[in-house]
Predict the structure.
Amino acid sequence: MDLKQVPKLKHTDSNNFFLLAGPCAIEGEEMALRIAEKVVRITDDLKIPYIFKGSFKKANRSRIDSFTGIGDEKALKILEKVSKTFDVPTVTDIHEVSDAQKAAQYVDVLQIPAFLVRQTDLVVAAAQTGKVVNLKKGQFMSPEAMQHAVQKVKDSGSDKAWITDRGTMFGYQDMIVDFRGIPTMRQFAPTVLDVTHSLQQPNQSSGVTGGRPDMIETIARAGVVNHVDGLFIETHFDPANAKSDGANMLDLQHLEGLLTRLVTIRKTISSF
């Protein structure tokens, strides 16, 4: 699909990767606007097409007492405010069929979580909204299998599908990115590398997912070198106190330096 189909998406002629970035979950208006303001400035300076990411609710949690959200409508309205304030598109996850139409009123891209990407009714409901559908590759799925998820979107009358690789299960408590899958999935749809979730360490005995944020730049560089169309990076100004996925998020203060180096790599490989 053409990136120009995404409303408000800027710098689409820059030959850069596009970026989905923001906090794991919407914790409140002030934090969302604070993060968005900084990422918008950075991406405008670097001419990176940017989509603000934030989950309006978190349905897949290890424990019943884990943070799930501040209220669906409240969080969705914050996403809408981010979009209007900074004139950028937004993306959020959906978990149930009824979420599709509800979230589509507020955001530009609907994301299907990795654990749910084989749920036909959910994928079809997302596609039928007319929004871009970002299909996260199941941690248990081969790259080749993602062609069927993309085909469900197409069979629902839409050509607006992306695939996002977020790593593959490697034992019980680790993830690994198989970069051989990038060119395979790019045959089916524009392909994004979810850098931060690929560094999760799930299934910890504490019930709180761990992570390896020290490896974010290593994975991101490899993704750019291997021609991913987009990058997905969760970032927060205080990861240690984030209400969801803090263990693998990028500290916001490091984002500008990282993206500057990644853009340089992209320009270098584009000459080959």
